[in-house]
């Protein structure tokens, strides 16, 4: 089976090509549909104007006239006068009887027959060598006729008033119907909306698939990192305990109570450390299942902060650090789960110590009361965080990169736990940080 790093780009390329191909097919289909609708509309409008021209032709009155000419002559005898008559070929004259009302009725009927709904203007013109003469026209026909050359929104349909093309030379009259060019995209509106919606669904599915794949890739990396960190975190105390046990078994040490007490203390501390790591993992499992139980009691936040700082004094001494307390809240009492709230403060202080500079660590803890809440601020002068890190620090298993995976101990669960506890107490947490200057966590909890 191919590794995820190699198959991932291939999947992205294939999905992208499928999406682009689908969009191209949809666009081509819509373009062809518009073209076919346009041709169909033009054919039906030509049928309309031809039908109206035929009806007008049937209403034309034709009169045939023959010219008779007389010629006189003298009989050869000279006694009589003779008359001779000559008849010319018949000449046909047209008596046109057009009215605006009649022509409009014909056009309306033809449009209904072709199932076309459109506003229109019409005119009947007589074509002569000296120009066109308008015989009958609707009100706006002259204006629209003048705009035809410059307008892209008007379409003229013209037909000579004849029964068939063989009579074209006999009729100098033509009918012109001017209509707005149809909005074919609008006529295909439902179809286009359906295709666009379908395409959006495909794009959304594509985006969701890619996002899920990135998430899975990220989770895979986080899982590997977590396993490596967990192995390291558990292996170190086990190795220390093993060395301490071997030392106690040494004959020289067995007779020295002080050394036995010293190595026993190491074993006890490393055992506590392992218990804390296991407890952290169990807390993570509880967070995953939303099984955190809050046993709320009335607690004094100032007392809890002082107790937590005392418990971390050894770690502070190792970093040559100190804690400044500005506990100014006049009402430090809240309803909270003492164990979880204590862990919350411990995790924030522990993080400040872990991500501190080589020396000169300073942590400031402040409290104050607002109108209906207690605000706790924990600030340090550590290495700080980037904006990207700040946006992700509450994600489970996420750990800020500091150049070495194991130079900062932990599983990346501490701040995820902090956020869960804050939410469980209906509180708020805000983070401010600048690289090289330190970080500040501002917590706010409601007070009844």
Describe the fold and architecture.
It is a single chain. This protein is an alpha+beta fold and 448 residues long. The longest helix is centred in the middle third of the chain and has 60 residues, at 189-248. Helix 1 (4-58) packs antiparallel against helix 2 (100-113), helix 5 packs antiparallel against helix 7 and helix 8 crosses helix 10 (338-354). The chain has three domains: 4-59 and 94-187; 211-291, Signal transduction histidine kinase, dimerisation/phosphotransfer (DHp) domain (Helix Hairpins, Orthogonal Bundle), CATH 1.10.287.130; 292-446, Histidine kinase-like ATPase, C-terminal domain (Heat Shock Protein 90), CATH 3.30.565.10. Strand 2 (68-74) and strand 3 form a beta hairpin. It has helices at 4-58, 100-113, 141-147, 184-187, 189-248, 251-254, 257-289, 301-311, 313-318, 338-354, 387-392, 414-424; strands at residues 61-65, 68-74, 81-87, 91-95, 121-128, 131-137, 154-160, 173-180, 296-300, 322-327, 333-337, 362-369, 373-380, 428-434, 438-446. Residues 403-407 have low confidence and may be disordered. The chain is elongated, with a radius of gyration of 49 Å. The strands form five sheets. Strands 10-12-13-15-14 form a five-stranded mixed sheet. It has a four-stranded antiparallel sheet with strand order 6-5-8-7, with helices on both faces. Residues 229-448 form the Histidine kinase domain.
């Amino acid at each position: 089976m191919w590794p995820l790093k190699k198959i991932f780009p291939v999947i992205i390329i294939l999905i992208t090509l499928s999406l682009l191909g689908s969009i191209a097919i949809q666009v081509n289909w819509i373009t062809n549909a518009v073209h076919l609708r346009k041709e169909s509309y033009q054919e039906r409008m030509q049928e309309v104007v031809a039908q109206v021209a035929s009806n007008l032709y049937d209403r034309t009155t034709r009169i045939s006239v023959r010219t008779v000419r007389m010629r006189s002559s003298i009989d050869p005898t000279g006694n009589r006068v003779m008359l001779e008559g000559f008849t010319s070929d018949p000449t046909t004259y047209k008596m046109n009887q057009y009215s605006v009302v009649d022509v409009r009725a014909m056009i309306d009927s033809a449009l209904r027959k072709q199932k076309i709904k459109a506003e229109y203007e019409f005119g009947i013109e007589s074509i002569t060598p000296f120009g066109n003469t308008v015989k009958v026209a609707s009100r706006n026909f002259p204006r629209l006729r003048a705009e035809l050359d410059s307008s892209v929104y008007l379409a003229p349909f013209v037909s000579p008033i004849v029964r068939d093309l063989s009579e074209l030379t006999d009729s100098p009259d033509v009918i012109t119907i001017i209509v707005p060019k149809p909005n074919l995209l609008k006529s295909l509106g439902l179809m286009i909306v359906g295709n666009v919606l379908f395409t959006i669904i495909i794009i959304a599915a594509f985006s969701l698939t890619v996002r899920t794949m990135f998430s899975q890739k990220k989770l895979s990396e986080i899982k590997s990192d977590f396993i490596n960190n967990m192995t390291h975190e558990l292996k170190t105390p086990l190795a220390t305990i093993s060395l301490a046990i071997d030392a106690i078994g040494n004959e020289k040490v067995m007779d020295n109570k002080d050394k036995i007490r010293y190595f026993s203390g190491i074993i006890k501390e490393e055992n506590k450390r392992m218990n804390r790591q296991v407890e952290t993992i169990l807390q993570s499992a509880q967070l995953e299942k939303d099984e955190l139980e809050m046993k709320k009691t009335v607690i004094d936040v100032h007392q809890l902060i002082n107790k937590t700082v005392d418990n971390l004094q050894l770690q502070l001494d190792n970093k040559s650090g100190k804690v400044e307390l500005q506990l100014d809240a006049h009402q430090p009492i809240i309803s909270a789960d003492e164990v979880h709230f204590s862990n919350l403060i411990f995790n924030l202080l522990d993080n400040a110590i872990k991500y501190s500079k080589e020396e000169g660590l300073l942590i400031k803890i402040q409290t104050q009361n607002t109108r209906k809440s207690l605000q706790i601020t924990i600030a340090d002068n550590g290495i700080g965080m980037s904006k990207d890190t700040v946006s992700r620090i509450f994600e489970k298993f996420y750990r800020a990169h500091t150049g070495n995976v194991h130079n900062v101990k932990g599983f990346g669960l501490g701040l995820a736990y902090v956020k869960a506890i804050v939410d469980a107490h209906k509180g708020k947490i805000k983070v401010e940080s600048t690289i090289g200057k330190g970080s500040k966590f501002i917590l706010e909890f409601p007070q009844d």
